[in-house]
Give the backbone structure.
Amino acid sequence: MYKKMYIEEGKISYQYYLGNGQFLMEVFSPQVAGRALPGQFVHIACGPALSTDPLLRRPISIHRINKEQGSIEIYYLVVGKGTELLGMKSAGDNISIMGPLGRGFALEQKAKKAVLVGGGMGIAPLLALAQELAKEGKEVVSVLGAASGAGLARAGAFLAYGKLIEATEDGSRGLKGRVTDHLEASILGNDTLVYACGPLAMLRAVAEMTGKMGVPCQVSLEARMACGVGACLGCTCVSTAEGAYPKVCKDGPVFWTSEVSL
Amino acid sequence: MYKKMYIEEGKISYQYYLGNGQFLMEVFSPQVAGRALPGQFVHIACGPALSTDPLLRRPISIHRINKEQGSIEIYYLVVGKGTELLGMKSAGDNISIMGPLGRGFALEQKAKKAVLVGGGMGIAPLLALAQELAKEGKEVVSVLGAASGAGLARAGAFLAYGKLIEATEDGSRGLKGRVTDHLEASILGNDTLVYACGPLAMLRAVAEMTGKMGVPCQVSLEARMACGVGACLGCTCVSTAEGAYPKVCKDGPVFWTSEVSL
Amino acid sequence: MVNMAVNLGSLYLKNPVTVASGTYGFGLEYKDFYAPDKLGAIFTKGITLHKRIGNPPPRLWETPSGILNSIGLENPGVDVFIRDYLPQIKDLDTAIIPNISGSTVEEYCRVAEKLDGEEGIAALEINISCPNVKEGGMAFGSCPNTASKVVKEVRRVTGLPLIVKLSPNVTDIVSVAKAAEEEGADALSVINTLLGLAIDIRTQRPVLGNIMGGLSGPAVKPVAVRMVWQVSQAVKIPVVGMGGIAGWQDAVEFMLAGAAAVCIGTANFPNPMVALEVLEGIEKYCKINDIDDVGKLTGKAWKEMDR
Amino acid sequence: MVNMAVNLGSLYLKNPVTVASGTYGFGLEYKDFYAPDKLGAIFTKGITLHKRIGNPPPRLWETPSGILNSIGLENPGVDVFIRDYLPQIKDLDTAIIPNISGSTVEEYCRVAEKLDGEEGIAALEINISCPNVKEGGMAFGSCPNTASKVVKEVRRVTGLPLIVKLSPNVTDIVSVAKAAEEEGADALSVINTLLGLAIDIRTQRPVLGNIMGGLSGPAVKPVAVRMVWQVSQAVKIPVVGMGGIAGWQDAVEFMLAGAAAVCIGTANFPNPMVALEVLEGIEKYCKINDIDDVGKLTGKAWKEMDR
Ligand SMILES: Cc1cc2nc3c(=O)[nH]c(=O)nc-3n(C[C@H](O)[C@H](O)[C@H](O)COP(=O)(O)OP(=O)(O)OC[C@H]3O[C@@H](n4cnc5c(N)ncnc54)[C@H](O)[C@@H]3O)c2cc1C
Ligand SMILES: Cc1cc2nc3c(=O)[nH]c(=O)nc-3n(C[C@H](O)[C@H](O)[C@H](O)COP(=O)(O)OP(=O)(O)OC[C@H]3O[C@@H](n4cnc5c(N)ncnc54)[C@H](O)[C@@H]3O)c2cc1C
Ligand SMILES: Cc1cc2nc3c(=O)[nH]c(=O)nc-3n(C[C@H](O)[C@H](O)[C@H](O)COP(=O)(O)O)c2cc1C
Ligand SMILES: Cc1cc2nc3c(=O)[nH]c(=O)nc-3n(C[C@H](O)[C@H](O)[C@H](O)COP(=O)(O)O)c2cc1C
Ligand code: FES
Ligand code: FES
């Protein structure tokens, strides 16, 4: 049988605090890294194995994939129990990760230009994507936004793969305003594909804009997850087709805007 | 109102692994240390504050009291969730401790000679007692036993306060056999008081022996605890008086053998 | 400023944060940690007509995010309570609410009568839901008819506000709630413990001396919130919500679900300061959300929901 | 050598470790982690006569040591199950047990009839305890009379072994168990989820799209063990125990309490390998305790207890 998901005891090679509750962690996990694709995620056991609270794993996007080294990077924000416990880990600690999970971003598309739109922690899955698209020879434009400059701690890394537009709501870094205020120019013209990840309100705005302009667009969604593999039917979003609830963990997390009603 | 119990964020000054699942930890906790008496215990939150499993604190005896330094030592064995989490802590970490709790060993008694009988982890509360009794000018004899030599990791510390008799069931260190096999000689004669802590079977044997010989004896008991302060009525033992269930956390953990039916 | 006072019928509480029966002794066990009169109310350990020695040990067992207890209403009896304990707490600036139990309706009434005359008692909590006694207790709370009977008879013998404590171990808690309301209950406590059992795989026997016990703590919170939600929409009298509250967020959740006041039980054990933290947290939550009266939280989740 | 095979009436399981309905899809979702035919049985996601799209999101919420779900029996309907899914799993060397539901007794029967003729089905689990559907489901399992009716009618239309899944949301689970036994159930599954609710204090609304949900996971274990203990002593047919099993120790606890087999649900999510770990752990436990047949664990805690 074709193996594509793994459960692996990953060893943390580093964990850096990036300020404002954000962490960047590298985990040595050769099996997961070996199969990982941009837009996929891992399911992480954040607490001690012997404790049943928190009970569930936490889904975290794969931020960067290093296949030669057999490692992945994750970029996350502390928002509750699980991520707080994750933030307490140090280099050398082991964590159980399941993955790679889900359907990632569509690759090898015809469009020559890719515009990556990331808001807040939505920036996380886009770095691996930028890297892959650059490898494919696409023109990559990353439009990354956050509430303030602190939220753009990882934006610099995107420069290696193409053009970078930064925006902050308070204007403390880059352009002032939301990513969607500064998007139109980048997606004008043919042969463009948009990939977006971020808060629902942002995704809605991006979907509307790309829809109007006739530009195809993929969005990466979030939902509370239990299994992460399509077994529990818990992590539903809403299909554009009547009466269907796609599963974010298996049918997504990446969807075409035409597939889901946001 | 007279304050006698505290909740304190103690800072771990050291934690040593003593082999066979045993740990020795020193915690800087000046309030608790300031009031602690031999035989009392502390109630420790072992897991991360934001997790509800394990839910309850764990009762651990005060192994040594250093009032000048404002610290206490605990000596514990990993047997489950709580103690396993405790064992993962390192110097510099904080832990929440409640204490000092309970009624400790009777001090300033008339008897000139004190025989301390400790089996396994029952050795833990006796060190602080030995120290205090030596200070009182008593003749202290410590009879300490364990399954094997590994369990006597802390026995050497008793030498500072008097005579030490070691016994192991496998004969790997000291006399071969149980503490009770080597006790009689030490408690012969008048003016002796016995203090015992260890497995129930050992306490029963000591109580029977001292009872027959007419030597007064105190035992330190264990029970599953929730509150540790006498509020939940959960940690009962059985009184020798008809129809009464003393509370180990408040009426004990130390009882005269005449008070409880073992 | 947030008005933190609440009224449970004729019973005034200076704030909605109280401690649960059986988890706070007779009100003084935790006094080293904070002055108990900061609480809105203290529900005492269950009191019966005669002294009860309780169940044989072991009486406690930890479970995932919860505990099982089988205390069995150990208490010195109502007379000793009145003589030895009440004097020490009656002057506290908080509502003292004895929790009363009986093996027969008659016993409930006798206990209520005795307490009725005493100074310093704000209300009575009628426990028809104790899972740890052979007679009475939960048996009364398991069906609307027997529940009615207890409330009706106790109502006759005392003018004190009556808070009836419901059992979650029923198919239809709403029918029991309504029965209690009809017979004159002034408020309802929701919930007592869930009936549970644990087995020690080394001894291969139940861990508790009394075999079964009552499950409490964070584990039961979703069940408790659900019952508060159901009961508070079905009756007109206020509901005191409890079951697994371990932080202010939980308390707010219960109030939004329909509780007029909350009761903290098991969480006192790991964190004796929890009640004060909850009190502060609720007040801050109200401020941040521009709520000037804590009572406005009560039932907000269903009052404002579009269906 | 320990004999690990168990018989649930006429249903043979090669070992007592199974996976719970709704937590293991249709049996293939976890195949990357281990071969599903290592399991004693696979209980499928609930199947209904017609396709059901399930409840609107959100459908999941984590609670202390548990989860609330309100999936609402999303499934493609029995015909699609037979056409698309069954062929993929029917040859697995494990018992395939469809879990069936209906809004009416008639629907249960139609589903059972359709499955009855199919190859590769070992038994049917009748779900009269789903808390997440408006009609049918838990309503059937909440009282002995309606439970009887479903079991009786399904019994008529199929010769397959019937395992009736009971709801814990009742005052007296034993009476429902006995009713199912009387009408010809071959075994009982104890328990389905506890009805619960959670409120998001930021939105001040219930977190689940369907408002209430079913509580599962380690939090409910003491309630589940208690019910297995009660039911297994009251009926003669075997009990499949479930509710919060997260390790082999929990599985042993259920068996000692009276379960002939165990079912693992929620714990598959954090630890997909849990079923194999449980299987190994039970076998090792038997060896260490000199038990040559796993069936001897069943009810040991009450069989050997002196009262
Ligand atoms: C496919 C996927 C990929 C993700 N990738 C990343 C990532 O790369 N970096 C990152 O920081 N976060 C990511 N998230 C979100 C992350 O999973 C949640 O922040 C995390 O589960 C919160 O767990 P907690 O225990 O810390 O917080 P909890 O205590 O569980 O919740 C705290 C807060 O977080 C919100 N929250 C929790 N889980 C989710 C969720 N699944 N979706 C939306 N909101 C949630 C809650 O509403 C609440 O506000 C991703 C989520 C999904 C579904
Ligand atoms: C007053 C008092 C003083 C104590 N002093 C010490 C000490 O100095 N050093 C030390 O190592 N231990 C001491 N103990 C025992 C210690 O409290 C338990 O080992 C601890 O609570 C186990 O927690 P856990 O989560 O690791 O294990 P759990 O997962 O809770 O249980 C694992 C095993 O430990 C046993 N156990 C758990 N709690 C108790 C208890 N309270 N009494 C008896 N058995 C128990 C269980 O039966 C089980 O076998 C003391 C207990 C009491 C009551
Ligand atoms: C150790 C203990 C003793 C209890 N004793 C009583 C009691 O005497 N009378 C009563 O009505 N409820 C009693 N209860 C139930 C609590 O008052 C409360 O209803 C229940 O524990 C749920 O709340 P919690 O989860 O916050 O503990 C007791 C609970 C515990 C844990
Ligand atoms: C996500 C989810 C879906 C479930 N779906 C069903 C179902 O379709 N039919 C059913 O009878 N039980 C269903 N259950 C209940 C489980 O089969 C099981 O009875 C319950 O979860 C208790 O076991 P656990 O604590 O091990 O999960 C579901 C449970 C969960 C968590
Ligand atoms: S999380 Fe279980 S189906 Fe997606
Ligand atoms: S642990 Fe609560 S009374 Fe002793």
In short: The first strand of chain C starts at residue 6 and ends at 8.
